[in-house]
Write a structure and sequence with these properties.
By secondary structure, the protein is mostly helical. Helices cover 74% and strands 1% of the residues. The protein has a two-stranded antiparallel ribbon.
Amino acid sequence: MSVSVTRVEQSGRRETVLAVAGLMLALFLVALDQTVVGTALPKIIADLNGFEHYAWVTTAYLLASTAMIPVIGKLGDIYGRKWFIISGVAIFLAASALCGAAWGMTELILFRGLQGLGAGMIFSNIFTSVADIFPDPARRAKYQGVFFSVFALTSVIGPTMGGWITDNLSWRWVFYINLPLGVFSLFALPVVLHQSARRLGVKIDYLGAATITASVVSLLLALSWVGEGYDWDATRVVIGFVVAGILFAAFIPVELKATEPVIPLSLFKSRVFSSAALLMFMVGIAMFGVILYTPLFVQGVLGKTATGSGTVLTPLVLSMTAMGIICGQIIARVKRIKPFMIAGSIVMTFGVYLLTTLDVDSTQRNVALSLMVTGFGLGPLMPSATLAVQSTVEKRLLGVATSATQFIRSLGSTVGTAVIGSLVTSGYADYLVNNAPPQAPGRLIDALKDPNALVSDQARNSLDRVASAFPGGEQLVEQILQVSREGLSDSLHDGFVFTLVAVSAAIVAALLMKNIRLGEERNEAAPVAAPGPSRQDGLVAGITLEYLARRIEGANGDSPNLISAALKLVPDTEGSERDRAQLAVDRVLRPLALEALGTSLERNGVNGHSGNSEATDSKGGVEEQAHPESS
């Protein structure tokens, strides 16, 4: 008997490890493609031409991936997450192959949009799938930290990795590299990732999905144009914001009337969800503002090489990754979330404050120290906010609530990038015009009006050619470059001050968070006086139930009595007999089997599967809640 239990345990653990590895690799690819393409764009433009479409290679991916997150998150709650993730991986890999083989800029942009669609399908469900694999919030905390560390790591190393691949292989391998890495996920996940519960007969909110998607696309387009250098009052930018506002205003009454809204507005009545959403928005601003503009400071102001600017982010990577994993382990033990959110937001704010003190006299060591402190604060914030939301919402809303927080973080990163980029570009140009040497010719000043010219070898060569045309030109170029570095330092200071204001709001969000204790309600609800089954009874019951579950899953019309008995366990569900029998396995038989085995193993002093009690809600989902305490 004990041998059978051991085999069941080993099989379950092996499937769990493979499922986690497959999901983690899928997340790695999706997060990497957000930033890896940027450094390859100059060579892509040189090869395919079409400089006027330069920004759209990134924008197409951003639009498709971000707009899909809330819609696919909701559909995952209804139809199950497994095949949305697998379909997303397949689409992502196919689009990666097409991007690598692109023969023109128009085709590359279209394929990048398709790649973003696959990425959105993955990203909207991947963190919720972690909750499906680890129903116990305390155990889940250990893995959420690891997953978010992978996301942070790939977001930071993307530019450096993209540059290395482009220089040593070809820009096409920036896309082709996804294929061998993604094949494991594509073949492993269908086998080892269990399907989450499906809710049959649910009416899809098509109008809500259409209005929120169109609103997000309009907003992202407007912000992308600002990031490209358009003024905030430019006609196309204003139209984008107006259209986004009108569509969002229409979205709210649609969601209030919908029986199954894409983003249930009732979520925002929850203090936990509202504070977590605000925190994630501010984290999005801080994270991508630091990742994108600190290298510009190192290259443009300190005069370091591109390699040096890439390595300066290493302290941020290491500190974020370490703190995400360590805090996840500690949360699993103490079962508290709020203290880590408060501490993380305060440390992150202090780190961003250190970034605001940088100037032309700073050293690379000063930058590294500031980034390390920022990373220590950022590390625990994203996993703890996600864990808090997942621990307090109904199980039937788990996917939409989790994807909504990721969607809000993505919007924060886009807003932050646009605002900081606008501050840096306009502030730098004004400083250069007002402080340039009076004898400097207009051609020299115009050549440096874009701050990226300070980090471009091509722009520096152009300056040297212009300077050689008149006496004393080299000395004048050095004077203008010094003024340019000072102007870039001042404008980046303004950008970091904006980031500081944003992360200060993150402290407020963390203070508003309820002080929840993971799993307390389940522990208190457990009966104390009732005697439990013996260890042998639990073993027998668990193995028997698991055997029945597998018989039902493998039945092909040869066990009608068994299928009929399974249908009686879920009398109020709809769908085919096969679908309803699978619901009986997912909702009743397998949870009971795991509970019986877990209880038996715990009585024997063995840490096996957790036997968490789950309560079926009125709509056929499973509700799993943490107990909120007063803060």
